[in-house]
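Figure caption, in words: inputs first, then the predicted bound structure.
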Amino acid sequence: MNKYMIYLNTIRCIGCHACEVHCKANKNLPFGPILCEIDHKPLKSIRGVPKTEFSFRSCYQCEDPYCGDICPTDAITKREDGIVVVDDEKCIGCMACAGACPWGIPQLNPLTNKMVKCDYCVDRVDAGLKPACVTKCTTHALKFVTMEVV
Amino acid sequence: MKESVYSICGMCTVRCPIRVEVEDNEVTWIEGNPHLLDGALCAKGSAGPALVKDDERPQQPLIREGGRGAGRWKEVSWETAYDYIAKKLNTIKKEHGPESLVVSSRGGPWQSMYKAFCHAFGSPNYTNHDSTCGRNTHHASLSLNGVGRKGFVYDIKNSKHLVLFGRNMFASLRIAENIQTMDMLEKGGRLTYVDVRQSMTGLKATRFFQVRPGTDYALILGIINEVIERKLYDQKFIDKYVSDFDQLCTFIEEYTPAWAAKECGVKEKAIKQFVDEIAEDMPHVIFHPGWMLTRYQDSFYASRALHILNVLMGNIEIKGGLLIPKGPGDCNAKGIQNVDFPKPDIKRADGVGWKYKHFDKGPGLQHLFFPTMLSEDPYPIKAWIAMRHDPFTCMPDPEAQKRAFDKCDLLVSIDTHYSEFGWYADVILPESTYLERDNPICLQKGLKPRLAVRRKCVDPVFDTKPSWEIFKNLADRCDMKDYFPFNSMEKYWEWQLEPTGLTMKDFEEKGFVSLTDEPVMYDPDNLEGQFKTPSGKIEMVSKKLTDAGLDSLKPYISPEKPSKGKFRLVYGRSAIHTHGHTINNILLYELMPKNTLWINTRVASKLNVKEGDIVDVIAVNGFKQRIRAHVTDFIHPECVFTVHGFGRQIPLQSRAYHAGLSDQKLMVGMLDKWDKAGGGLNLCESFVTVRRSARNPRRRVEL
Ligand code: SF4
Ligand code: SF4
Ligand code: SF4
Ligand code: SF4
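Bound structure (iron/sulfur cluster present):
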């Protein structure tokens, strides 16, 4: 079972897209790949106020990662805590994973020619910190949740 | 080795506290100061390192070779640039007098250094960008409360109801304030938002008024009328602190909610329900008096009326209301010292202080320099140093400005990036970015006043310098050796801290020094002396305004309706960009490369304009720009809206170059339309023609 998940409190989210930049800055990504995505539906008037809600999406860290199954070099693995990570040493940048992922999550980092995707900022998690997007969310709308078996 | 440095963000002028991690002279991580913001930062804040690495910014001093604006530059050393400027300044001083120099900057804690330079040179003509920003709000508060707009901080967190008139705070971010507002809303507080369109802030509102453009003042008057009619105001507060309240009561009689509803195009019932709500929430209701409120012909009066509502709520120095910011004196502490030079006893060229006596003399009013420059009356202006200030982006009608600037023998731009003004100037002096430079210590007033400092995190990537060094070097060559008698920022900090007994070590733990452990509040029943008006009261009728032949309570005048085919041009912000500063930043450009023109669905269909179509936007003199339309139900049909800062014309900024549309270039003739009471420019009083552009291909003729 996945140990972690990122949760967006839509009441607090102001659609500022900062999380997308926090992520890129942390991973030192160039123009091109954006690993998480803030989106919203068209506005609808609710009791006189035009409203919409924002959604946050990154990699789903699937139970059975399609991206990993197809990878010819076994570069993608699922860790014990559920995080699906890519091993840069093994990745050859063929991007088969992007085609296999139902949501097209994996992207090519043009600087390294390797695949890059959200890994909950695994180096930070291992250091006892939270992912970049969560740590620096402008209004503290994003939460890094640790699931517990009850 | 990894290093952690506390500093102050510089991607916009909010200056949020940050913590920066540095490894091998590279910034690897920036977050909001954990002690103050718990990590929170905006997109621009995270894009700081991309600014440092951006090679599309000036990398060494440049002296113009071709005609102004031609873009032919000679790369020179700092010595050569300093000598060149100093020689010109010294000649200008000899021939025209020192007062022919203007120094302009942005407002904020570090302006004393630029102001002191101007004064030490012998000129009274220091100015800043505020006549296109907070001047109306500032003067409105001064005329009523006797303190300027920084005379209050808003205790949003503890309030029950925040009312915002076009203050789009979730796009014009101030992170601490944003977090407070969210906390307040999560606790069940209310947010009322008023604008001509729906915005990121309006999305979070519990009540939304979409008003006809330019009618904010009418809605505020209608609300005051209802509050007074229903006697909801705090009588005790008014008896104690307010003068001429009866004049307000008489004045307001005719402005009923029914009248306001009709004028603004909203429902009378909604105004009354809103007043029911504030009756429940009083005194913990904050009417935000506006930030950048240099928009309509009556913005000054709108802001003043919002301040009046705060007074009626009796919310001053009450938890969840308007709090008086405290300084070192309130904490039994000593403040820091800053370089300062007395202002020369010469008339200001913008007329502030002698022709216009009711304005705050500090930075004067920048747009009023232009007529003086053209007429040379009372004296010519021959040199202009713009310190991180871009008049061509920040003020309307750059072409008209150029006619005035052409009267100058020397135009200098000091900035971290190419500004539109810099591109036209004679010399560009590249300042190091905020991550590459130290700045003086500054005092941040509030309930818990503190001292904070910006520190250099990495060495400059290019041959750039911090501003203190630039001004010091110019001063040394202009015979102003006393101006800044320090050889390093460390020495200056030491001197700044002398009265306080603190050392730089005290900043290491948290990046700031709090001057008190507990918040300092005054007794709300004992606020005598806090309102620094001539009478010491909150003055409904200001003698200063009366003496200047101006109303304090101004009868409402309905705004002009656009003629057929025309629209009022309204502009604003997005959370991704800081006006024109950040458009070329690769990480921010990636998210928002261009702006769009918001236009109402109904009028768009009449113009045969569909979502994403290219439209021509045409100024009164025929000047035309093109932009893609965003067709939406959620904007008033009388106006079109766009995000400010785009449409830049600097070829070396390859990303920003001609990307999107520049609203200020369409504001032709608007330098002359300003508020005689508030001093601000009326930036939303210009009209444009919009039509479907011939650039939309009708068919594809190639393969
Ligand atoms: S940073 Fe936070 S508030 Fe901004 S868009 Fe992302 S989740 Fe929403
Ligand atoms: S990349 Fe796609 S398939 Fe792979 S774990 Fe993420 S969401 Fe699942
Ligand atoms: S968890 Fe890390 S990698 Fe994933 S979206 Fe957030 S910042 Fe990006
Ligand atoms: S609002 Fe954003 S850009 Fe402005 S100072 Fe704060 S973090 Fe920096």
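The interface with chain A takes residues 29-32, 38-43, 45-47, 49-50, 170, 173, 175, 178-179, 182, 185-186, 198, 200, 202-208, 270, 575-576, 586-588, 590-591, 632-634 of chain B (CB under 8 Å).
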